[in-house]
Automatic annotation (TrEMBL), chain A:
This is Carbohydrate ABC transporter membrane protein 1, CUT1 family. Residues 1-10, 25-45 have a biased composition (Low complexity). It holds the Pfam family BPD_transp_1. It is found in: Cell membrane. The chain crosses the membrane at residues 68-89, 128-148, 160-181, 360-379, 400-421, 457-479. Belongs to the binding-protein-dependent transport system permease family. PANTHER family: BLL4140 PROTEIN (PTHR43227), DIACETYLCHITOBIOSE UPTAKE SYSTEM PERMEASE PROTEIN DASB (PTHR43227:SF8). The lineage of its organism: Bacteria, Bacillati, Actinomycetota, Actinomycetes, Kitasatosporales. Residues 124-478 form the ABC transmembrane type-1 domain. Keywords: Cell membrane, Membrane, Transmembrane, Transmembrane helix, Transport. One of its GO terms (cellular component) is plasma membrane. One of its GO terms (biological process) is transmembrane transport. It comes from Actinacidiphila guanduensis. InterPro entries: MetI-like, MetI-like_sf, UgpAE/MalFG_permease. The keyword Membrane applies.
From TrEMBL, chain B:
The chain crosses the membrane at residues 34-56, 105-128, 140-161, 173-196, 217-242, 276-295. PROSITE patterns: ABC_TM1 (PS50928). GO terms for cellular component: plasma membrane. One of its GO terms (biological process) is transmembrane transport. It is found in: Cell membrane. Keywords: Cell membrane, Membrane, Transmembrane, Transmembrane helix, Transport. Residues 1-15 have a biased composition (Low complexity). It is a multi-pass membrane protein. This is Carbohydrate ABC transporter membrane protein 2, CUT1 family. Belongs to the binding-protein-dependent transport system permease family. It comes from the Bacteria.
């Protein structure tokens, strides 16, 4: 189990299995039998009578078949592989050397285009990110899950849950994650969680967009806060008029603003919406009908430090202690920040990481199952001995489990890399139209060039050749591995 | 275990020279045991959270598919936990009345079943020939098949589209089936050849001596013995073809398209079509999930057999 591990994969994105090592029980390929007596042609007949009367012949290989019978068995496979796999490879290589019309030979120009065109370069870069990140994270998660599930009784159920997404199509997974990444926090679960966490730590403001009048004593300061130019004095009221939000956007039940009663030894004032519908109010005066802004945080800042803070009450009145005297009053930005709307998962910056996350959701289970199988082959005594010798769990994991699993980890990584190289469906489905170019990958670009209106079969073919070249090392490795096994 | 550990922690050191160091280090005293128990608890909680995390997206799809588009437009699927009355099967009902969708689902079956059977049939014929027949250049042919294991389908799309156009099956189900069969073959041949090669030689020789012909030998001895490998292969191929979108996107037309392609067309206006997409996606998942849960063992053992031998 542990020694033989041949990377490789099922052709195509959906196939989960990697190609395995050859077997030791292969039929001998060299001439080994003493007699090469050719059986009669009837031997190929399907009926039981066909081979009767052949007698006790010493057989060369078990069946001693004549080549044309073998050819019959091989024919369907050879025709299909030849016509739909081998020939297309040749044609694509050839086609990649011609221009969009396929009429004039352009040499390697199409490959130059791939590595110079801005749009395609994004695809190349994203593919590199995919190949580096997705297999690594999926394998790491698979490893952790495989090790941890050994310690719980319901490990099998856990594995089933994590493995399950492998059975579904990338289209379905794409739709699933379109729902998850829905921008509106009231509909998309990812943003619902992010917003909930965010709001737990920072409170939402009730007055996004509120601001002082341009000529007000309050001046905009760093980070969206407003600070008074004058200093506060005790015993007088420092009113803080704001505008910029319509009255009907105020929270229901906003009351009439009231001038703050002067309180000896304290700094008081009113925060209110200095605007009356109809425009009949006077600036900086609390006119009847002007509403209080309750719950606004007022800070007293002295030399850059907040020395006191208070919140305005229902009538807009705030009261700061005497220590606020001589300080500049500040309305921190948290009063005015807009409602936090979560993360723009499918925006230009995050679209690729978001899609990679959905891929990991699908494929971590594959890594986990393979690694768990490898883990079953790790001798328990070895781990036990290490623990006996005083190694902690982490050390056992780092120094023994991981090195012993290295061959399996390589298989998983290489299989996933080949798989990721060709990623198409997830990107095509999850990336919305406006950020598709940000999420672009080679397979998508190939599709767009060849079938999706790009109309340049030359460049499309060149991308196909590049994808093929990228898997050649794995091809060579598989072949060498096979030949080594044959020689044993 | 606990008694043992306690004893190890309290007994005089000299008295247990032989076994003490090991036990004491491993199970330690009370703090170590508490830490271990807490560790176990942490592991359990972490795994539980991960499992929930992994289930959540699928649950979200299922619950979304059971809500009206009006509800989906204003709130998330978790709303049904407080308003279970929102659950309805109207989306599914209208989906099943939608011929474009039901036809495409049927196309998926028409593509998947033949493509699976063909790969198994052709692959086992060739796998048997590679395992037990002698013919010139056999090893070279097999190397070619192994090389084809990792060929990306993308390389073949343009030429095969052209080829299918020339022979008049572009847009036809048969073209999609043939393409899937061809690209399923390298793995099929590889897997089955290796499996068939393990059949004991004596068994085949005995059958041959009993007078079995080539085809009879293949049908009566090799195929039954190859059952497990064929089952794994069949399940893989079935899932792969059922779940494919790219190949059908190119080689099928509007009459022959499978459900993946039909749904894909609705994705551009995601929010407007969510009442089709969510139930449609779930419908397309039902068969793979049934196959997955029914044939878990073959599926997993196939993964093993293929990857880590």
């Amino acid at each position: 189990m542990a020694d033989a591990s041949v990377p490789g994969s099922v052709p195509g994105a959906g196939g989960p299995a990697a190609a395995g090592g050859g077997t030791s029980g292969a039929a001998p390929s060299g001439p080994s039998g003493p007699s090469a007596t050719v059986p009669g042609p009837r031997a190929a007949g399907p009926g039981p009578g066909g081979a009767s009367g052949r007698g006790p012949r010493v057989l060369r290989s078990v069946t001693g078949t004549r080549p044309w019978i073998a050819a019959l068995f091989m024919l369907p496979a050879l025709v299909l592989l030849g016509a739909l796999v081998a020939y297309p490879i040749g044609y694509t290589v050839y086609r990649s050397l011609f221009d969009a019309d396929g009429t004039s030979f352009v040499g390697l120009k199409n490959f130059g285009t791939v590595f110079s065109d801005h749009g395609i370069l994004t695809a190349v870069r994203n593919n590199a990110i995919w190949v580096l990140v997705a297999p690594t994270v999926a394998t790491a998660l698979g490893l952790v899950f495989a090790v941890l599930t050994e310690r719980v009784r319901w490990g099998t159920a856990f594995k089933l849950v994590v493995f399950m997404p492998m059975a579904i199509s990338m289209l379905a997974a794409g739709i699933i994650f379109r729902l998850v990444y829905e921008q509106d926090p009231s509909r998309g679960v990812a943003n619902a969680v992010v917003v909930a966490v965010h709001d737990t730590f920072t409170s939402n403001s009730a007055y996004p967009g509120a601001r002082p009048r341009p000529n007000s004593d309050l001046k905009p300061t760093a980070g969206g806060s407003f600070t008074a130019a004058s200093t506060a004095r005790t015993g007088t009221s420092a009113n803080l008029p704001l505008v910029g939000i319509p009255q009907n956007k105020l929270p229901a039940g906003a009351g009439q603003a009231r001038p703050a009663p002067a309180a000896p030894g304290k700094v008081t004032g009113t925060v209110w919406l200095d605007f009356r519908p109809g425009g009949t109010g006077k600036p900086d005066i609390i006119d009847p009908g002007e509403k209080a802004l309750s719950g606004v945080k007022v800070e007293a800042v002295k030399g850059g430090k907040v020395v006191a803070s208070a919140k305005s009450g229902k009538d807009g009145v705030y009261t700061l202690p005497g220590s606020a005297a001589g300080a500049h009053l500040r309305l921190p930005a948290s009063n005015f920040s807009g409602k936090y709307n979560g993360v723009n998962w499918l925006g230009p910056d995050l679209v690729t990481p978001s899609i990679i996350a959905s891929y990991i959701w699908m494929w971590a289970g594959f890594a986990m199952v393979l690694i768990a199988a490898g883990l079953a082959g790790v001798p328990r005594e070895l781990l036990e001995q290490a623990r006996v010798d005083g190694a902690g769990e982490w050390q056992v994991f780092r120094r023994i489990t991981v090195p012993l699993l290295a061959p399996v980890l390589v298989v998983v990584m290489v299989t996933l890399m080949i798989n990721v190289l060709k990623i198409f469906d997830l990107v095509y489905i999850i990336a919305p139209g406006n950020t598709q170019s940000n999420a672009n990958v080679l397979a998508l670009q190939l599709y767009l060039e060849s079938f999706g209106g790009g109309d340049d079969l030359g460049v499309g073919s060149a991308i196909g050749v590049i994808l093929l070249l990228l898997v050649v090392p794995v091809m060579v490795f598989n072949i060498r591995r096979l030949r080594r096994e044959r020689q044993r | 275990m606990s008694a043992d550990a306690t004893a190890a922690g309290t007994a005089p050191p000299a008295a247990r020279q032989d076994r003490a160091p090991t036990r004491r280090r491993r199970r330690g005293g009370l703090p170590a045991r508490l830490a271990a128990a807490a560790g176990g608890g942490v592991v359990r909680i972490v795994l539980l959270v991960v499992a929930l995390f992994w289930l959540l997206p699928t649950v979200g799809l299922l619950l979304s598919s059971l809500r009206t588009p009006q509800d989906i437009a204003v709130s998330g699927w978790w709303k049904v936990f407080t308003a279970p009355s929102q659950l309805t099967v109207t989306n599914y009902r209208s989906l099943l009345d939608n011929h474009a969708i039901t036809d495409s689902l049927w196309n998926t079956v028409l593509i998947t079943v033949p493509a699976t059977l063909l790969v198994v049939a052709i692959g086992s014929l060739a796998g048997y020939a590679f395992a037990w027949m002698d013919f010139p250049g056999r090893d070279w042919w097999f190397l070619a098949v192994v090389a084809m294991l990792v060929v990306p389908v993308q390389v073949a799309l343009v030429p095969v589209a052209k080829l299918f156009g020339q022979i008049g099956i572009f847009g036809d189900i048969s073209g999609v089936v043939l393409f899937h069969t061809a690209f399923g073959l390298p793995f099929a041949i590889f897997l089955l050849r290796n499996f068939f090669a393990e059949i004991p030689r004596e068994l085949l020789e005995a059958a041959r001596l009993d007078g079995a012909g080539e085809l009879r030998l293949f049908a009566r001895v090799v195929l039954p013995l190859g059952g497990p490998a064929i089952a794994s292969l069949g399940i893989f191929q079935f899932l792969w073809v059922w779940n494919d979108m790219l190949v059908a996107l190119i080689f099928a037309n509007s009459d022959s398209q499978p459900i993946t392609v039909a749904l894909q067309q609705q994705v551009r206006q995601f929010s407007d079509n969510v009442d089709i997409l969510a139930p449609g996606a779930f419908l397309s998942m039902v068969v793979p999930l049934i196959v997955f849960f029914a044939f878990q063992r073959q599926f997993v053992s196939g993964v093993m057999a293929g990857a880590v031998k």
